[in-house]
Description:
This protein is mainly β. The chain has strands at residues 10-11, 16-23, 25-30, 33-38, 42-45, 51-54, 62-68, 76-77, 90-91. It has a domain at 10-78: Jelly Rolls, CATH 2.60.120.
Amino acid sequence: MPPGTAEQRHLHHRARQFFYVLAGEFTMELEDHLHRLTAGQGLEIVPGATHQARNESSADVRFLVISSPPSHGDREPAPASNSFLPERCAAGDEGATQRPGIDVSLKGFG
Length: 110
C-alpha cells in the first residue's frame, strides 16, 4: 500500500479477517480505535466491525489479509468517524487485547 493512502471505511457481515504486516508500518482504524502495527504484528477483524486500512507513513507497507469466509460480496461502506480520542489510540498491541474478539498477538499463527 503506497504512503498516504487508505481504503474506504467498511464492514463485513460474515467475513472474519486477519491482517498481518510483512513490511512497513500499517495503521488500522477499528471501531473508532487506531492500531499501529509494524512487521511481524497482526490484527483480527471480527464480522460486523467497521474498519479502515491506512498507510500514514512515508514508505510502502506490505501486508497479508486472510478472510474466512471469503469477503468478496460481503463488504458494506461505513460512514466516516469523528470520535477519535487520544486515549483511544493504541500503538502496536497496547490496549487492543482489552476489547473482546480482538487480539493483535500472533498466538496460534506461528
